[in-house]
Design brief:
8 strands, 4-stranded antiparallel β-sheet, alpha+beta, 3 helices, 171 residues
Amino acid sequence: MFPSRRRLTVLLRRRIALPNFAAVVLYFFAIDACIAQAPSSNPMTIPLTTIQKGNFSGIREPLQVIVRTQEAWENLWKRHTSIQSPRSPLPTVNFATEMVVGLFAGEKTTGGYDVELTRAELKDSNLYIYFAEKTPISGGMAIQALTQPFHLAKLAKHDAAVIFVKLGPKE
């Protein structure tokens, strides 16, 4: 990014005033610094592996959660499986290299609702978790029971700030 020695010699031979020469050098430094600090516009996709997805959970309120420790995972699983008898065994997660993302839609009065973690991307020092929500078709048939749609998945561990992004109907 710096002017070559030959270019500097040409500039000096033309007797460019020192303030102008200094401005040119500072310009090249500024351009180089801007390029070095430009945020990454190319997101890095992080694969998601589903742990469990379904319509019945002990977590009855809407919840978006990131779990980075074994203790927090055990507590979340205990709440999630509190309506089961016997409870499902705790899935294994290696928290040295992995973490869990959970999406709970809250309690619904009928079936036909769904939530889905669609993808994860690391972009601009943040971890974006994209998800979709579906509702029953108006006038369609749905089970007449209380449901609690949820999706739990694991992914590679990242310390970045997490931002949940709800996708629109066609995204």
